[in-house]
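User: Hello, beginner here. Can you help me understand these amino acid letters and fold codes? It all follows right here:
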Amino acid sequence: MTKRDSENPDIFGQALLDFYTGNHTEAITVISSLTEDDEIPVPYLFRGFDAMPLVEQEALRLAQGKTLDIGSCAGSHSLYLQNKGIDVTALDVSKGAINVCHNRGISKTIESDILSHTEKNYDTLLLMMNGSGIFETLKNTQNYLKHLNSLLKTGGQILIDSSDIAFMYEEEDGSYWRDASRDYYGEVTFKIQYKNQTSEAFDWLYIDFKTLKTEAEKAGFSCKKIIEGPHYDYLAQLIKL
């Protein structure tokens, strides 16, 4: 989710509330600096376990102990874990998203961005749906990973998914182009639109596994790839040393 202020509407939250209350009429439009506009069907954000990608299913199988679902959105992951008996808290910066999580029956919810959250001694931190996106840029990754490290018990884990988007820069002749204005090819700028409202532009990071592993080890974690998905995506497990 994006950081919000009075000039930046809670677009995801409004879309989630509309669907939950039966007022859903359209998808969320995603405007990208890298590719053509795309859409997020709002019902997909309420999906059950069987409709989740394999990387998400595997992350939910691995989650254990006191768990924080970071960027919980509509709470689908939190709800699944709660129903398994796991002590899970749904955290999102979106007021609307947290309202939906609460209304769907998730017992513990927090409306906050992750850098403002300081509760400690978690066993699992869950970052799904390209969880590395919240790092914004590669330069910011250490700041976020060190903060996440501070929230975990020794031996605690981060379960995070991302994608290597190098393929999006490939030309027909097999060569690759790069955006010279970016420090790293996985940095993308987005805006989102819903019902005639448009967010401010925000940065979102896609990170290849090799780079994530390097950054994780600098921040005091071991890092291994758990599973690869079908679309250049993967699930990684970071363990606090």
